[in-house]
Amino acid sequence: MTKKTFKVNDVFAITGDETSNKDVETDEKHRPKSNWRDLVSYWLFGLCNNFGYVVMLTAAHDILKELNGEEEQHHGGSNRPCNLVSTGAILLADVIPGLIIKFLSPFLPFWHRTRITISCLAAVGGFVVVAFADTEVLALTGVALTSFGSGLGEPTFLAYSSFFHHNVISTWSSGTGGAGIAGSLAYSVLRGVGLSTQQTMLVMIVVPALEILTFFLLLTKPKSFNIEDHHVGDKVKASNDLPAFTSAKEKIFYIKRLVHFMIPLCLVYLFEYFINQGLYELVYFPDIFLDKSEQYRWYQVTYQIGVFISRSSVNIIHIRQIWVMAVLQGLNVIFFVFEAYYMFTPSIWIIFALIIFEGLLGGGSYVNTFYRMSREIPATRREYAMMVVTLSDSLGITLAGFLAMPMHNWMCGTPGGIRLQ
Q: Which of 333, 346, 347, 365 is most buried, judging by how many CB atoms fall within 10 Å of its CB?
């Protein structure tokens, strides 16, 4: 059997151990049929699962400002309002618990109903705790609860997608992009019309309620939980070269075959969240129609618009070379570092345009990675592979959080940094 590269739908190439394109046609013929209930359900899952995560990041500046106050720092001769603590602290609380549960998830029993129920309850708890927090520690605990819920939900939903038509991956990704817009916009609008942070957080509880109702009432139930029954024509079924895993050791060694998916995705998220949580709050335009906090919120909204567009585009444009997006995102980092330091951009609208581009790269890397996996990973390995690769974005985001805080200290001259005159 020889390794061959072939085209699928004349859009992107897949490499596998196949000898004929007939096998690809057979694979498509036997995949689960697309069902509107499943597609809508997975869009809502993506929306609801990521909603709290986005809200916490959008609210980061407000949470820290209300708990710690805001002080004027000086940069390049201009007054720069800086929180005493970087929004990177919120980012870490919003991602580390999720990273831990994503790391453990592939090795835990796949009790999908229990997992989803716990995920939704954690999201509710996170909103409530943040709403009534009166200390920084309590607020970060609430953010961490939200992270735990989102971190448990993402690998569970992606692994469970193996029992449905592969198009649920595209609707899931679109939903996660929609969460970005809905979460950041909902928070910004509710705060803009006069609701307090506490009131806004309590309103958000309806979202995890919608998620659990969708799972139990709208999503269809697989007729079988034998993964091979849902992929009768898959390559692994035909060749019997890759049977299901029989031990944890096999799972660990299989990770090296996923590295080419994981590294580019990790880098893209490292770069973009370093910008989002380390530099957005330092990119400030005085004396315009938006104040400091409003500028930060609308940076987040604009970023999420770019993410939504790209995450909804996989059925139109397939991008195989994810590393290209990692390189472009690295260039974005360089620009925003210089902008935060020198404040040379003449208009906030230029920043908005660059933020949309940043979001397009981030969303595009995510959806194209998992879409490729849904087409290239053998059926018996797909559920596990999906859970493992979800670690990549969380790892990149975690590293970004640790880098964001010293950057904030250096720029603002807060304790641990150098005051810039």
A: 365
Among the listed residues 96, 148, 98, 154, the one whose alpha carbon sits nearest the alpha carbon of residue 402: 96
- Residue 6 phi/psi, 5° resolution? -140, 165
Closest by Cα among 226, 254, 260 to 379: 226
Contacts for 24 with CB less than 8 Å, ≥ 6 apart:
6, 8, 14, 18
**Widest pairwise Cα distance in the chain:** 69
Provide the whole-model pTM.
0.70
More confident residue, 199 or 84: 199
pLDDT of residue 225: 54
Q: What DSSP assignment string belongs to 200-266?
A: HHHHTTHHHHHHHHIIIIISPPPS---GGGG-TTSHHHHH--SPPP-SHHHHHHHGGGGHHHHHHHH
pLDDT at residue number 84: 66
Q: Which amino acid is at 71?
A: E
Of the ranges 48-52, 251-255, 290-294, the best mean pLDDT one: 48-52
Give the Cα separation of 151 and 140 in Å (integer). 16
CA distance 415 to 421: 15
What does the alpha-carbon distance between residue 231 and residue 381 come to, in Å, rounded to a whole number?
A: 12
